[in-house]
Amino acid sequence: MKTSKTKTYKKASQKQPVKISGIEDQEPLIRQLKKTQKLGKIGNWIYDVENSKLWWSDELYRIFSLHPMKASSLYNNFLERVHKDDRDKLEEQINSGLPHRSDYRIVIPGGAIRYIHEEVEIDANPDGKPCRYMGIAQDITDRIIAEKEKDKLIADLQTVLAEVKTLRGIIPICSYCKHVRDDKGAWKQVESYVREHSDAEFSHGICPICAEKYHRED
Q: Does a structural domain hold residue 7?
């Protein structure tokens, strides 16, 4: 009996380690999630209030140019990354204890500015007190730059259009002297009126009819 028990123990000790069902199955999903977050430049975080634990995804660390660290240090380093002109407003939203959306800038090492869009949701315990904060943060720098370039292009086009003067509508002109009445009621020579309402210029000459009429003696 003793020998049998010893053999049984040895066989048991030689078996492969027990695998927890489900964990290996999740690894491909985790890798896919990381890849998706990298492509979308979006990361997520979770803060456990009761245990004071803060977790960031790999992509979130990359966006903020930070490395894994303790929760207290991570939060302080996060705030230091936030642009000084956006920091107070963001802290006010965080301290409100309410779900929120925010857009703010961060300054990464080297001085480059990134634009961040963040959304935060909150889970409460049975007493109604927040027990978990969850958020996503996306680097929207490329979109903001594209929008600024579009706005600049539109502004430039509007400036160009404003400088283009076009004559439209009915122009009141005297049947005899050919003076033109402007919007204020003043009568002006055709040349003056056209210059004020367009970019046209005049070069004066004389037509054959007028030459015959006014220079007959010559």
A: no
